[in-house]
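Supplementary Methods, section 5.1.

A reviewer requested that the exact input to the structure prediction be made available. We therefore reproduce it here, unchanged from the version used in the analyses.
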Amino acid sequence: MSPAYLLKRMATILFTLLVVSVIVFGITQLLPADAAVMMLGEHATPEQLAAVRNQLGLDAPGWLQYLHWLAGVLTGDFGTSLRTGLPVGETMVVALGRSLLLAFASILLMLVIAVPLGIVAALKRGSAVDLGVGLGSYLGVSLPEFVTATIVLILLANPALGWFPATGYVPLTEDFGAGLHHLVLPVITVSVILIAHVSRMVRSDLVDVLETDYIRAARLKGLSPRRVLVRHALRNALLPTITVIALDVGYLLGGIIVVEEIFAFPGIGRELIVSIQARDLPAIQAGALIMAGTYAAANFLADIAYAVLDKRIQYG
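The structure derived from this sequence is encoded token-by-token as follows.
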């Protein structure tokens, strides 16, 4: 991977984030919310409201407000929350860390289950195992998150059983065991659709790869079935899966909003819901921009993983 390509990709990511920042700032300016009223309350006098608007620069033209906001973002200052009075950048980054913890735990569980399921289904194509994996995949993809969450809560968070807590969050740094205990149900809920999606893709791609000429040639050389599978087939069959996983990171950051709300998980999705309900414009802007940056980084890492797994792929 050449330095020129890396610079080009970084420039593309920065340009994308710039466009996203313009769109996000423009949309939030259209929301029916007045920062001065939110800070002082509805009973504030016109003079007080005018003074706050002047202090915050809200009486300036929209393009000038955007430039001031963008300058702050470039220095790490996303503004102050109208709801809490705290810096929104720090709040959103902490919330993003929790969401990424949930996302990575879900992806890890998905890889542990989905990849072996897809491999077994491909090797036993047409068997009852293949049929079972296919039916399970269709069922998992068809269930929305709130339905899966409800089923998980009924089965595993029954107060009479006391297996897992229904809601809440405990930082792993405070109590590792309790933190994992609270993560189980959200992770299972998020992983269901990922397992269904990825297992089906692994199965389909591996079936196609196993029918290629170079796999037949490897078998004719006398290589063991395990070596053919691991060293030759999987390296190529998993390439499309990497793309799906990278796209799933974006889905997780946006799609787990429902899961975070149901399980009262304080991630960036739930933080955005609260900010939207409170018309907290700086928090909405910061959250949307941080999520876009995370999604762009995930796609960039997917390209790097492509080059690592398949040496034929050269970026330059």
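The mean pLDDT is 79. These observations are discussed further in the main text.
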